[in-house]
Design a protein that fits this description.
Length: 538
């Protein structure tokens, strides 16, 4: 398929009214693009031009004043005009030598009309041609897009799309996928181009090259570039490049989606792994079969609960897992997803330094929560992160810890509670107490009267106690954080002392009270039962 290209100065010289025109300087610039034609008879023109204009003039503006003419010529060159056409005779009889040298030096075409020509007919002719060319370009672009869309339904490899792009434009096509080799269509050019081609600012493209990043899931995934062959890259080429990059992104996303579906079919084996059924050797053998270059540095499991309560629309679990995989691979993890009942577990194999695993996991989850997919599909996503597993066979321990972290976080009303099991120190102790003792009775013994007082009188004693302890007994700081005057705080503290004793800030007793407050927050969902138990005692 062949496509037309923009009008050049050389093309204009073939038009009807230029048959007797003579190029007297800047012949090497005849390939300059012409986007419009202006008739100019003034010498201050720089603020009126946008570039690529062919200028027609009779010379009346400078009237044999060489300095004015040179000034005009410099302005045209600086504004990237296409060329200057001068009608000799009435106002201009010659062109100064300095102007010829300047035009040759900048490859700026100077064209002379040796007889009178109708400027109005010239502008009408060329503008009509340009407008028709724009319509033709739109039609060609639409034709290309339709053929490209058809190919997307049948192509098996992205190289077919690259070949199609090259056949349409004729330029050298270069493609580089993150982590892969640089590919050239039709073949790698001679020279050292490509030795430094890469992502992340490592590219060393020639100045004439046009590079189009291809992004998936908000991150740069590949680069598509055109290297000019035989002519400059023009506006039409850029439009074709943009359409092709979009098509490549769709093709790559489709392949990733299919790959994710295949991974889902491996879910049963991964279930056995996460439940601790395999040895290190069996796990390593499996991973090497699927990822031969893998060098594991331990791993961690994080789990989430994707239910219907927080859904805003249709939830595509395959796309969700693909999004997670992309985000975490960018942060140095190989991710395996496992559906475990109502939970979705992710085994994150660490590929970087162990010291940074926690910050990278946290960053990945933050990016996931901020993604457009999460904002439009889920209002909330409970997440828990397990302990770091130095060996792959101990991943099951990380999984159990992640479930406990998820359970703790789902019981808490604190938005700032840590995602990580390792950081939920007191709450882990509270879980054990709740499992092997009557935790509600213990909470009631310390906090029952305070909770009952707040319920009965709509008081703020429990909130006051929390803040007062957080401020280490500083009355000034506590009053400030509670937005009350100090006299009100004194009254509340007296009330607290009547329930807890005047020694409740003594170290051991204070520690027990703080633990019970954390336990109450953990069991907040059962608060009404606690009130009922207190009322029964009364």
């Amino acid at each position: 398929m062949g496509y037309g290209f923009p009008l050049t100065v050389a093309d204009v010289l073939q038009r009807k009214y230029f048959q007797k025109a003579v190029v007297i300087a800047g012949k090497e610039g005849l390939s300059r693009t012409v986007k419009w034609v202006h008739v100019v008879e003034v010498t201050k023109i720089s603020n009126l031009l946008r570039g690529k204009e062919l200028i027609l003039s009779t010379g009346v503006g400078w009237r044999e004043d060489d300095s004015l003419f040179l000034s005009l010529l410099r302005q045209l060159i600086e504004c990237d005009a296409s060329g200057l056409c001068i009608e000799l005779g009435t106002y201009a009889s010659s062109i100064p030598k300095e102007a010829l040298e300047l035009a040759n030096r900048h490859h700026f075409p100077l064209i002379l009309f040796l007889e009178e020509v109708p400027f109005v007919e010239i502008t009408h002719d060329i503008h009509t041609y340009l407008i028709n060319q724009q319509y033709q370009m739109i039609a060609q672009l639409e034709s290309y897009s339709q053929e490209l869309n058809k190919k997307l339904l049948t192509v098996h490899h992205y190289r077919e799309i690259l070949t199609f792009l090259h056949s349409c434009l004729g330029h050298q096509v270069v493609f580089h996928m993150h982590g892969g080799d640089v590919e050239y269509i039709p073949s790698r050019p001679r020279g050292n181009l490509g030795a430094g081609v890469g992502l992340g600012g490592e590219s060393d493209w020639p100045s004439a090259a046009v590079v189009k990043p291809i992004s998936l899931f908000g991150a740069e995934y590949a680069e598509l570039a055109l290297l000019p062959v035989g002519r400059d890259i023009n506006e039409f080429d850029l439009l074709i490049l943009d359409r092709t990059a979009t098509a490549l992104a769709q093709h790559l996303l489709r392949n990733l989606y299919v790959e994710e579906r295949r991974r889902t079919e491996e879910n049963e084996w991964l279930k056995g792994w996460i439940e601790g059924e395999y040895s290190d050797q069996e796990i390593s053998s499996y991973l090497l079969d699927h990822h031969p270059s893998l060098h594991s540095r331990g791993g961690v499991v994080w789990v989430c609960k994707v239910g219907t309560a927080g859904q805003k629309g249709n939830f595509d679990s395959t796309y969700f897992k693909l999004l997670c995989r992309s985000l975490f691979e960018q942060r140095g993890f190989l991710l395996f997803s496992v559906e475990m009942g109502r939970h979705l577990a992710f085994i994150a194999i660490n590929l970087r330094d162990e010291e940074t695993w926690k910050s990278r996991i946290e960053e990945g989850i933050k990016c996931l929560m901020a993604s457009d997919f999460m904002q439009t599909r889920l209002s909330a996503l409970p997440v828990g992160v397990g302990t770091f597993a130095p060996s792959l066979s101990s991943i099951n321990q990380s999984y159990r810890a992640a479930l406990e972290a998820l359970k703790i976080r789902s019981r808490l009303d604190e938005q700032g509670a840590s995602l990580f099991y390792d950081d939920l120190h007191l709450y882990r102790m509270i879980m054990v107490l709740d499992k092997y003792s009557d935790l509600r009775e213990a909470i009631n013994r310390y906090l029952g009267p305070i909770i009952e007082y707040d319920r009965k009188y709509n008081g703020k004693l429990l909130e006051t106690l929390k803040v007062y302890l957080q401020c280490n007994g500083s009355k000034q700081e506590a009053a400030k954080r509670l937005f009350i005057v100090r006299q009100t705080l004194y009254h509340r503290i007296e009330k607290l002392e009547s329930f807890l004793g005047d020694n409740f800030m003594e170290a051991n007793k204070r520690l027990a009270i703080e633990l019970m407050i954390k336990a109450y927050d953990y069991l907040m969902g059962d608060g009404e039962a606690l009130y009922a138990q207190r009322n029964a005692q009364l």
